[in-house]
Amino acid sequence: MSPKIPSWRDSGEFKQILYIFPVSSSFQQDRSPVPFIEKFNKKGINIRILAKIEKGRKNFAFLILTGGCEQEVINQLKNTEGTILLLCHREDNSFPAGLEILARIQQMNRRGKIILLNEKEEDFLELKNMIRIMKTEEEMKRVKIGLIGHPSHWLVAGTVKYEVVTACWGPKIIQISLAELLDEIYKTTDSDSKKYAEEFIEKSSKSVEPHKDAILKSAGVYRGIRNIIERYNLHALTLQCFELIKELKTTGCFALSLLTDEGIISGCEGDIPSILTMFWMYCLTGELPFMANPQDIDIKENTISLAHCTVPRKLLKSYTIRSHFESSLGVAIEGKMEKGEITLARIGGKDLRKLFVTGGKILKPEYFEHRCRTQIKVKLEHNVDYFLKNPLGNHHVLVRGHWASLLEEYVRYSGIVKGEKINE
């Protein structure tokens, strides 16, 4: 199997490791970084000191110990890539030096950011978020996303070149034929699938349309996809699921739900921008994603209704086993989500350099027979007229928690999206 991503998580805890390059004036060379390192350690941040900056170095911070070190930092920039992070403090003219350095960085058309470390907890929270962003950017470059089949033909705004995904966001797209998956599913026996089907049935509130044989067949899809994941060392995947329905008269909804619960983030319809959004949000926040169709909006209440036939069961307080909405075949999940804060996002644009992101709250579950099975009503912070005037596409991705500012900071830090293009 592929190494687990995000690998910075160990038993649910974030590994806070930061590489720093301390700099000081020739007049104050006795200024030691040790007191700062001790302070970082008390805040749960493990420091690694760089003896020198190798060519191409990124994802580290200059620790500005004193004033008078401005030119030293500028001289080192030739060896660096990406955004320059400057850690300043309140004494020894550290912050004034940081201001001069940042101004020069911007004159050079480079990206930079100052974090001024006082004694406030929020300063260290900002630094921890930057460490999370740095680590996620590194992780994304190791990711393999499987595309099983092709993007569904109706995803007319989601057609992207695979090399653009890699160049802009990091992951490599691995194309896998649907025929290869079908071969794996045909090899699967009922005994291979039985325990997954039984567990799915046992934990459900009830099953409406699907009988046990249909659920067992759906579990066979999971086993087949699992074999593909192991063969190609995939970290995530998107499936051309409607073609699967044509071939097998069953669905991938249960399989994609279970895989996502297991940390192999899995999306529908061969939608590359959506699976990219799903995996990125998971990697950065650690929260499981729900990929959904916007079904309705209320301008006055600033709410949106979301629905889809697959959802990670770990996001649900209960669920009913249903048939797939569009085909009335196979297995889908009608889940009930708890109320609470969420973040909704979508990566888009022809070059994948646009982002929509907003916070919000789940208000209640909904039930309409002529929509996909899991349905929720959400109140958004950003104006819902975005969906009428400038949407990036259909599918949008929801995670638990309020992460909008972290996602925005990521795309600014990485240079993927300029600040003024977020939610345009």
Structural overview:
- The protein is of the alpha/beta class.
- It folds into two domains: 132 residues, Rossmann fold, CATH 3.40.50.10940; 278 residues, L-fucose Isomerase, Chain A, domain 2, CATH 3.40.275.10.
- Helix content is 35%, strand content 25%.
- α2 packs parallel to α3 and α7 packs across α8.
- It is elongated and about 80 Å long.
- The two termini are 39 Å apart.
Give a short summary of the structure.
The chain is an alpha/beta fold and 424 residues long. It is built from 13 helices and 19 strands. The mean pLDDT is 93.
> What is the averaged pLDDT score?
93
The helix/strand class is alpha/beta
Share of residues in strands: 25-35%
Helix content percent band: 25-40%
CATH architect. name of the largest domain: 3-Layer(aba) Sandwich
Count of discrete alpha- or pi-helical segments spanning 4 or more residues: 13
**What is the CATH topology descriptor of the largest domain?**
L-fucose Isomerase, Chain A, domain 2
Write out the strand line-up for the largest beta sheet, numbering strands in chain order: 12-13-18-17-16-19
